[in-house]
Design brief:
This protein has 13 helices and no strands. By secondary structure, the protein is mostly helical.
Length: about 240
Amino acid sequence: MTSTPSETDTCPPALRSAYATAKRAVIEAGYGPEIDWQRSLNFKDVTESDLLREHAWVVLSCGMRESVVRRKFPAISGCFENWESAEMIATRACLCRQRALAHFNHPGKIDAMIRAAETIASEGFGRLKALIARSPLRELRRLGYIGPVTVYHLAKNLGLPVCKPDRHLVRLAEAVGRGDVQALCADVSDQSGDPIPVVDIVLWRFATLYPSYVELFTRYLSASTPGQEGSPTTRT
């Protein structure tokens, strides 16, 4: 049986090298722009439209494949006035709901988007953004249909320095002996210089591209550890 690296034998240089190999594979697969997009995000630059749009994206993504959400999102955005204004959506809530349900028949998710717009409109975006800056996870969960895991997804997409503990990253963290996903991404960030959300999106995309991602990543670690034999590969 193949052994799994522990926290003590996964040295920083090996972790950095394994991450670099995974990142190269993701870029070569054509996802460099996705990494650039994540790197460009900064919560200080977030607008009301950004908050509405990213909340909707995360809500739709719950339990759905990214490819499905990406295909449906432009039409749903049009139903919500392209996220131009929370007040506009709140004022036209019935019409927005009716149009959106014709494209995506999930009342719970559509209603959550409307509630988020109503919350932003009633509290004021500036005040709400200040509250989110002070307590991101607590405040973002008030927007509706945002749970203890998906709140990290939303925070990451708004440029906050967190990662999403989804099942792929949880498995990787366990495989390399890190206590949790936040610890794994923080360690890789420290060693690579990439921000935590960038580390998240690299490892997540790597996992979606390669079904044997845990085996591959641990192989990269072994190949990068002094005294270990083998060479990394990105083919499965």
